[in-house]
Amino acid sequence: MTAPVVTASGATPACSVEYSVTSQWGSGFQGSVKVTNNMAAVSSWSLTFDFAGGQKLTQGWNAKWSQSGTTVTAANESYNGSLGSGASVSAGFIASSSGSNAVPASFKLNGTACNTDAEPSPTPDPPDPEDTAPPVLRVSGNKLVDAGGATRRLLGVNRSGGEFMCVQGRGVFDGPVDDASVKAIADWKANTVRIPLNEECWLGLSNINPAYAGANYINAVKDLVAKVKAHGMTPVVELHWTYGQYTGNSAGCSDVHASCQKPMPDMRYTPSFWASVANTFKNDRTVVFDLFNEPYPDRATSTTTQAWQCWRDGGTCPGIGYEVAGMQDLVDSVRGTGATNLILAGGIAYSNDLSQWLTYKPTDPAGNFAAAWHVYNFNTCSNESCWNSTLAPVAAQVPLVAGEIGENTCAHGFIDQVMKWFDDRGLSYLGWTWNTWDCSSGPSLISSYDGTPTAFGTGLRDHLRALNG
Fold first, then answer.
1. C-alpha span between 97 and 99 (Å, rounded)
2. How far apart are the C-alpha atoms of 170 and 168, rounded to whole Å?
3. What's the pLDDT band for 453 if we cut at 50, 70, 90?
4. CA-based Rg of the chain, rounded to a whole angstrom?
């Protein structure tokens, strides 16, 4: 069930507060408040309200949050204390809930009542879903086709957050995942959203805050998948961060837990993760499964052959200290549930090397298996010569999806080249990433979750709109 966005709104000469439930799962929810000061300017502020349904605050951001009894207080941080006349500030929080999750009835800013001219009321229901539901995709030769046999391409974005927020104890997603923020993706004329996940959070392991683990995490993911589908887009669920201690070449962290990118999935938890994900979505074949974000066993071993063998077969891999789950193990885990959903698998070298993908392609009894590839301007295979020699042979035999494309230049000259090469061959690609990060520290498509693009994102947005009208 999709959690509705609930808003209390109103205005007086003093102040107004908008209260929203931006995401909701079994025993918890993510909320936000937007406070507008209509009084004289203040150098500090404190918002108070009472939870009316037994909700318990667990954490918050952009304010100093606390709760005493039913009363919740959000006080300014050092960086956002100044609030001029007519100015607004927003802050968010996570809380547990049971029952109706009632909206607070009143709010006070620095002791002055807000919203006294309006009663809290639900917003209208979200707009009707798009006319076209996402297709059930299957492999036909080297194309992806729908139930009617028409060729389809996956063209869209990544929505990062589900891989790192939970393991860092900060929530489930990075930024809002309400209907408006998902609609903003659809407004770019994207037809696909890739959703990175964390296996420890999905499985509810003991090192993860229970508020963001197990059923709470799964329900939040299911809720986002439903919103993506409601706007006619294909959801791709992808395993990004996994268990297993790796301290070798190019290690992202020394932690055994799923707090960074590891060179390969682990046999201890990853097959269980994919069996659970497949059981969750096997009755919804519009959901695509991307087995593992960016394998790099080649950084741990001295030979390419050993790297590809590790990629497919797993087991004891040179240079990797934990038992590895290979791509064949993961395909078997998915298919063992009866799920026939489309599966994607990236190659080695952070999914940038597909040179022996066809040689080591796992066996899929459902015959619904495609190649994934990632490319950034700083990768080894980042020019047309490499694409012609290593990608074209793969794309001639199986569908090819560029699960991540991007550049660290805050521009779009490089992805323009990638998109043209893929367009000319009828292939699929997804931009990294639909998050409001500073593009100078990595590829970020947007500066606001309303879909305002960065200079980099403008290239993808305008291209998708030109393709899809």
1. 7
2. 6
3. very high
4. 23
Can you name the residues that pair with 241 across neighbouring β-strands? Answer: 198
pLDDT digit string, tens, across residues 153-187: 999 999 999 999 999 999 999 999 999 999 999 99
117 three-class SS: coil
Q: 460 φ, ψ to 5°? A: -70, -45
Check if the beta carbon of residue 375 is closer than 8 Å to that of residue 400. Answer: no
Residue with tokens 């560029």: 402
CA 134 → CA 29, 100, 137, 148, distances in Å?
27, 31, 9, 13
Inter-CA distances, 220 with 27, 125, 215, 302, 342, Å: 11, 19, 8, 41, 22
Beta bridge partners of 155: 429
Q: CA 232, CA 228: separation in Å to the nearest integer?
A: 7
How far, CA to CA in Å, does 188 sit from each of 18, 268, 438, 449, 468?
27, 40, 20, 12, 9
Q: For the chain, what percent of residues have pLDDT higher than 90?
A: 71
> What does DSSP assign to residue 47?
E
Report the alpha-carbon distance of residue 299 to residue 304 in Å, rounded: 10
pLDDT of amino acid 85 = 82
In whole angstroms, what separates CA 391 from the centre of its chain?
26
Helix, strand, coil shares of the chain, percent, nearest 5, are 25, 25, 50
Token digits for 156? 């869209």
Q: Give the strand order in the sheet containing 112-114.
A: 64-68, 71-75, 46-50, 107-109, 112-114
> Sorting pLDDT into bands at 50, 70 and 90, what band is 40?
confident
pTM, entire model = 0.75
Type of residue found at 130:
E
Contact call for residues 235 and 287 (beta carbons, < 8 A): yes
Cα 349 to chain center, whole Å? Answer: 22
Q: What is the mean pLDDT of the chain?
A: 91
Helix (H) or strand (E) holding 113: strand 112-114
Q: How does residue 13 score in pLDDT terms, banded at 50, 70 and 90?
A: low
CA distance 140 to 272: 29
What is the mean predicted confidence (pLDDT) over 239-245?
98
Adjacent-strand bridge partners of 113: 108
By percentage, how much of the chain surpasses pLDDT 70? 94
SS3 376: strand
Whether residue 121 has pLDDT greater than 80? no
